[in-house]
Design brief:
heterotrimer, A mainly alpha (107), B mainly alpha (658), C mainly alpha (169), A: 107 residues, Helix Hairpins, B: mainly alpha, two-stranded antiparallel ribbon, 27 helices, globular
Chain lengths: 107, 658, 169
């Protein structure tokens, strides 16, 4: 029991989890039909990458890895704000959120 | 530049005249155009005379003059033209005895004909164009004569062909004139191929194109005969036959009579057609080293002379008769070159320039007076209406027939004597020349009778008087035709003239020597001329039916001669027609439409097709774009991480920085 | 302990992510994403990044996902309707994802020098984080703030209702 309590986790498992999260995000990007859900898959991808950064920061005791995650979060926030504003504008013009229907450059 | 005499001015002044008249001439008044057109040849002639003073054959003994007098051969070099590897060509003008003689003829007779043109073109349109082309011709001809190397001579060679084309097709609205111009240029071009190939061989075997160097090399190797030298000589001969209208490339000269008569006089009698003879004389050392080529030259000359004389017997257009006569006399000159009597050939060139130009200009005066009629059958009795023209034509006819003491006698007999001295083949050639002299006398007197004697057969009474600008040159040329023969200073042979030319063209090993033989040969020549006159007199004086009955007796032969042995038709069928067929069916359909057009269509089609393919890729569908993005990312990842992936299988490779 | 916690919250992560893909209503997907975010926060904590864990919850789960939910509710996005699919997405995209996953997984599994993570490893203090952030990386920090300002302006400009203000009113 004590061995179970003090057991350590190989760092590669964290990295694998990060890779799987990223791939799931890509799959979501490809198969989802709602514009907002597609956007959410992008956020999922970003989170997967964040996990990878934190893992390496832990591995090599580099604080800069964590700082980079900080910046990624900031940029993701800005991106989410602007992106959702765009989605609202597109919805106003097209009256639909289906990705396949929004295929003309001219609004 | 190089001090007096300025050789470079001699070609350049006519070129300036060409530019002035060509560019501004349409806006200038007629008298100014004529003045510019006349000034250039006059200055060139004056400069040539100056050259006679300043350039002598041997150094002068007078110490005061010594610094100024140059010795022949005198050359002026204006810098490098082509310097690459084995080929080194300069802009160099060379004056020696041969080119001096040619220059005097070209600029002197040229000037006289320019003066004549002022009167002849007085009522015509396009005189600025005419004078500019004449000056252009003079530029190229003087360049040809003065050139020190074969390439510069080729520039002049081509240029006179160009000027000839421009002038023959002067009345370009007439289809026959335009066609004649084209024919002249194309046939000349065919000959020029020979000249070019000869130049290539020269360069390959001598390493230089400068005449002096080639001559020096040949003199240094007297044992080098035949072989490649024969090939070079024959190629050059081909070029000469094109330019000088010998067999087989003479066909352009009769058609060239479509041009204005002064043009026929200048280009197709006195100067351009003699360029071939000049070229052979200039490269005579080459021909001397190849007896076979010399023989070919002689045979070509003799055959052409006889051939053309037979055709001239039945021509009805006055200018055609003179054209065939020119071809025949050029044949004489080639015969002279072919028996290595270059001085005799040049002598005949000079006298021929005088009397042939005279005949052409007189014919022009006749045509001008009777309102453009050129058919001999419609002329007659012009003796009273055009006394001056009659007088000078008489002088010209006597000169060309070879009567003593006119110029033609001396020069023609020099050639015939040289041929006679050449051995058994020479005797045969002499005989052909004699027969041709008989025919020459016959057809020239025929022309004389039909045009001037007898009752007038002209239809209308149109009659323009001949202006002095046309009569003046006629009189000068008549005087030269009478007295021109005396420059040789000998009874038979080339005498002083030959001695003068000797440093440039060599001497014949044997002059006639035997006075008895000399007399026999001269009497034979004059006798033959008299025989021709007799024949013409019997046939063409008033109310003679001999020609008509002869024509009726030999209809086939008459037709053959009248149609010029059907040579034009033969060429048309064997050369022109196949070319046209090839052009239409092969070059037009296969190469132009199928290959080139097809390639263009193919390229355009590929672009359009690729565009259509790629268009479907740009669907606007975000998901497909995303899919391609992911695919691209996967590809990049794969590419960058190949070693690690392969390392899983134990394969270690160097890749992209790993 | 570390192992159990890891397996638990990694499971939540994966479950939330797969649920995001499987749900048809966007609001359900948003809620699954919140689950993923919070699980990730716990994982960050396990890896010793305490500041980031809190920041993840506050910023990501607390602000960004709320924004998403607001927009979903504002636009009244309903269930996804069956639209014409994209064959390319399936035929080209899936292999691409498989390749990406495969390559990364191979690299990770073959990498040397990766150690273990356990509870006894130290926690990175906020002090260490801020020291580096405000000295070495001050410029990126300031630039990021400007970026956020621009994003605010941009979002306001884009989402504004243009047609409603007519001239003269």
């Amino acid at each position: 029991m004590s061995s179970l309590l003090t057991q350590e986790v190989p760092v590669s498992w964290y990295l694998l989890l990060s890779a799987v999260l990223f791939s799931l995000g890509v799959i979501g990007f490809l198969i989802k039909r709602n514009l907002i859900t597609v956007f959410m898959s992008i956020e999922l991808m970003l989170n997967g990458v964040n996990l990878s950064f934190v893992t390496f920061a832990h591995q090599w005791h580099a604080v800069k890895g964590q700082i980079f995650v900080f910046f990624v979060m900031m940029v993701a926030a800005a991106e989410a704000a602007v992106g959702l504003a765009i989605i609202i504008a597109v919805f106003r013009a097209r009256a639909t959120l289906a990705v396949d229907r929004i295929d003309l450059m001219k609004l | 530049m190089n001090g007096p005499p300025h050789l470079w001015l001699i070609p350049l002044l006519p070129f300036a005249g060409f530019l002035l008249n060509g560019i501004l001439g349409a806006r200038l008044p007629r008298w100014l155009v004529s003045t510019i057109g006349l000034l250039a040849p006059l200055c060139s002639f004056g400069l040539t005379l100056l050259v006679c003073v300043f350039v002598q054959s041997s150094p002068t003994v007078d110490p005061d003059l010594a610094p100024v007098i140059r010795v022949m051969p005198y050359s002026e070099n204006f810098g490098h033209w082509i310097v690459t590897g084995a080929l080194h060509v300069d802009f160099s003008l060379v004056l020696d005895q041969l080119s001096l003689v040619m220059l005097l003829v070209v600029t002197g007779v040229g000037f006289l004909i320019h003066v004549y043109s002022v009167g002849y073109m007085h009522d015509e349109e396009g005189d600025a164009r005419y004078f500019s082309y004449l000056n252009l011709f003079l530029f190229f001809m003087t360049l040809l004569v003065l050139a020190g190397n074969a390439l510069l001579m080729f520039v002049g060679w081509e240029g006179v062909g160009l000027a000839s084309y421009l002038l023959i097709a002067f009345y370009f609205q007439k289809k026959s004139a335009a066609d004649a111009g084209k024919k002249a240029f194309i046939v000349n071009r065919i000959g020029d191929v020979g000249f070019l190939i000869g130049m290539f061989f020269l360069l390959a075997n001598f390493g230089t194109l400068t005449f002096a160097d080639i001559g020096a090399k040949l003199v240094a190797n007297p044992g080098w005969q035949g072989g490649v030298l024969t090939i070079i000589a024959l190629c050059l001969l081909l070029g000469a036959t094109g330019k000088s209208a010998q067999l087989p490339l003479y066909i352009w000269l009769p058609d060239a009579m479509e041009g204005p008569t002064p043009v026929s006089a200048l280009i197709h009698a006195a100067t351009m057609v003699t360029a071939g003879v000049y070229m052979i004389a200039r490269t005579h050392v080459l021909f001397d080293h190849s007896p076979f080529a010399l023989g070919v030259v002689a045979v070509v000359g003799a055959a052409t002379a006889l051939f053309a004389a037979t055709i001239a017997l039945v021509q009805n257009d006055i200018k055609r008769v003179l054209a065939y006569s020119t071809i025949s006399q050029l044949g004489y000159m080639f015969l002279g070159c072919g028996v290595a009597a270059y001085s005799a050939a040049i002598f005949h060139l000079v006298t021929h320039a005088f009397f042939k130009a005279l005949l052409f200009l007189a014919a022009g005066a006749v045509i001008h007076s009777i309102g453009g009629e050129q058919d001999l059958r419609k002329m007659g009795g012009l003796r009273k209406k055009l006394p001056v023209a009659f007088a000078v034509t008489t002088i010209g006819v006597l000169a060309i027939a070879g009567f003593f003491p006119f110029s033609g006698f001396f020069s023609k007999d020099a050639i015939l004597a040289a041929a006679f001295m050449q051995g058994p083949h020479g005797r045969a050639l002499w005989f052909v020349g004699l027969v041709t002299a008989l025919l020459t006398s016959f057809y020239m007197f025929r022309l004389w009778y039909l045009a001037f004697l007898g009752e007038p057969r002209a239809e209308t009474g149109k009659h323009h008087s001949t202006p002095w600008s046309m009569l003046g040159p006629l009189l000068v040329l008549a005087a030269l035709s009478v007295g021109g023969g005396w420059i040789s200073g000998a009874w038979l042979g080339v005498g002083r003239f030959g001695a003068f030319l000797a440093p440039a063209v060599g001497t014949r090993a044997s002059e006639v020597g035997n006075a008895h033989l000399e007399l026999m040969l001269s009497i034979a020549a004059v006798g033959v001329a008299l025989l021709g006159w007799l024949g013409a007199h019997l046939s063409y004086r008033q109310k003679s039916t001999i020609p008509a009955s002869l024509a009726a007796d030999f209809p086939g032969g008459y037709k053959l001669l009248e149609n010029k042995y059907y040579v034009d038709e033969i060429y048309g069928a064997t050369i022109v027609k196949p070319l046209l067929v090839i052009s239409k069916y092969f070059l037009d359909w296969v190469v132009d439409k199928a290959l080139l057009g097809g390639t263009a269509w193919l390229l355009g089609g590929i672009a359009t097709f690729a565009g259509a393919l790629l268009q479907r890729w740009q669907s606007g569908n975000i998901r497909s774009y995303a899919a391609w993005l992911a695919a691209g990312a996967a590809a990049v990842l794969l590419f960058a991480l190949v070693p690690i992936l392969l390392g899983a299988y134990g394969i270690n490779i160097k890749w992209a920085g790993f | 302990m570390h192992l159990i916690l890891f397996i638990l919250f990694a499971g939540f992560c994966l479950g939330g992510a797969i649920n995001l893909l499987l749900q048809s209503h966007p609001i359900s997907s948003a809620l699954s994403l919140i689950v993923v975010m919070t699980s990730l926060a716990v994982l960050y904590l396990l890896l010793g990044a305490e500041f980031l864990a809190i920041a993840q919850i506050i910023v990501y789960a607390g602000a960004i996902m709320v924004l998403f939910t607001f927009v979903v509710m504002l636009l009244n996005a309903g269930r996804e309707d069956r639209t014409m699919g994209s064959r390319t997405a399936r035929s080209v995209g899936f292999p691409a994802v498989v390749v990406i996953l495969g390559v990364i997984a191979t690299v990770i599994l073959r990498a040397q020098g990766l150690g273990m993570a356990g509870l006894q490893d130290g926690i990175t203090s906020t002090e260490d984080l801020s020291r580096i952030l405000f000295t070495e990386l001050l410029l990126p920090f300031e630039v990021t703030s400007v970026l956020i300002l621009i994003a605010i302006l941009g979002a306001v400009a884009l989402a504004r209702n243009d047609g409603e203000r007519k001239p003269g009113q």
